[in-house]
Specification:
structural molecule activity, Phage_T4_Gp19, 145 residues, two-stranded antiparallel sheet, CHP02241, Phage tail protein, 1 helix, mainly beta, Pnp Oxidase, Chain A
Length: 145
């Protein structure tokens, strides 16, 4: 039995996020990179054997990015607060990177808008790493490469 090793396995340890070429920093967690085909059910007159399942559109989930607080937090907060001043949707990029900085995978996001920023829970009785979470909405993504 021959076992081959794929040296390009996508082991992502960090995720770089850019919005219109502005670097928002490195995140340690990225969730929600998925899409779903919304199906519509149609019953055909005279056909009692089944119901037609027709694809109608794609639905994209919001993406949640998390990381420890750091120097990039101020830049992120500024971008999120820009929505209040009349925001235009932008393009975004998420790059999955190995520990050595090699880009393993990259996705372009269409019409990105920030939905929610969640800061750390501040409690001196339970010392732990302070983290922040960014949630973004978009109109679709495309894998690069």
């Amino acid at each position: 039995m021959v076992i081959t090793q794929d040296l390009d396995t996508a082991v992502g340890v960090s995720f770089v996020v850019k919005i219109d070429d502005e670097d928002l920093g490195v995140f340690s967690s990225c969730e929600g990179m998925n899409c779903e085909v919304v199906m519509e059910s149609r019953e055909e007159g005279g056909n009692n054997a089944f119901v037609w399942q027709l694809p109608s559109r794609l639905k994209y989930a919001n993406i949640k990015l998390s990381r420890p607080l750091g120097p990039s937090t101020a830049k992120l907060a500024s971008w999120v607060s820009s929505v209040a001043a009349g925001y235009q949707r932008k393009t975004g990029v998420i790059q999955a990177m190995r520990a050595d900085g090699t880009i393993v995978a990259e996705w372009s996001l269409i019409d990105v808008v920030p939905v929610r920023w969640t800061g750390p829970s501040l409690n001196s009785d339970q010392p732990k790493v302070l983290t922040e979470t960014l949630e973004i909405a978009h109109h679709g993504f495309q894998a690069k490469g």
